[in-house]
Amino acid sequence: MSTQNLDQLCAKFGWNIADEVHQAIGKNAENHITKSLGVLQEDGVYAFFLYQASRGQREKPGAGKLRDQARELLKEAGIKGFEHAGEPLAAVREYLASDLDQLLLAKRLLEQALIYARYHAKALE
After folding, report:
1. What is the value of pTM for the model shown?
2. Whole-angstrom Cα distance, residue 2 to residue 68?
3. Distance (Å, whole) CA 12 – CA 6
4. Exposed e or buried b per residue across 17-54, where buried means at least 16 C-beta atoms within 10 angstroms of its C-beta
5. Are 76 and 23 in contact (CB under 8 A)?
6. What are the pLDDT digits (tens) for 62-89?
7. CB neighbour list of residue 21: distance below 8 Å, 6 or more residues apart
8. CA distance 65 to 21
9. Is the dihedral of CA 98, 77, 71, 32 positive or negative?
10. 45-53 vs 29-43: helix crossing angle, rounded to 10
């Protein structure tokens, strides 16, 4: 059994997300993170990654940073399908969606990291 502190991991990635998204899109970082959190909470992990892929030109640099940090969070947490994942949408479709416990854990980890990221982004402005 792993003794990894998952809240500490979410705090680390929450900071990374805020910092990288802020560097990529400036003052719109908090807004993009908040909208991403809403998509995750309402529609789930697959919709969250799909939302990042669907952003327009203005948000695309920040969405790419957020997607990459989210993928690394799930990889470091040992979430099924993300061990060697290059493409998060494929990892969710092909592995994560078939394991409800892992899917719910992934959603909870992403929610916590995005909540921390939203506050970090607000502090950066």
Report:
1. 0.93
2. 24
3. 10
4. bbbbbbebbeebbbebbeebbebbeeebbbebbebbee
5. no
6. 999 999 999 999 999 999 889 876 799 9
7. 29, 32, 33, 62, 65, 66, 117, 121
8. 6
9. positive
10. 140
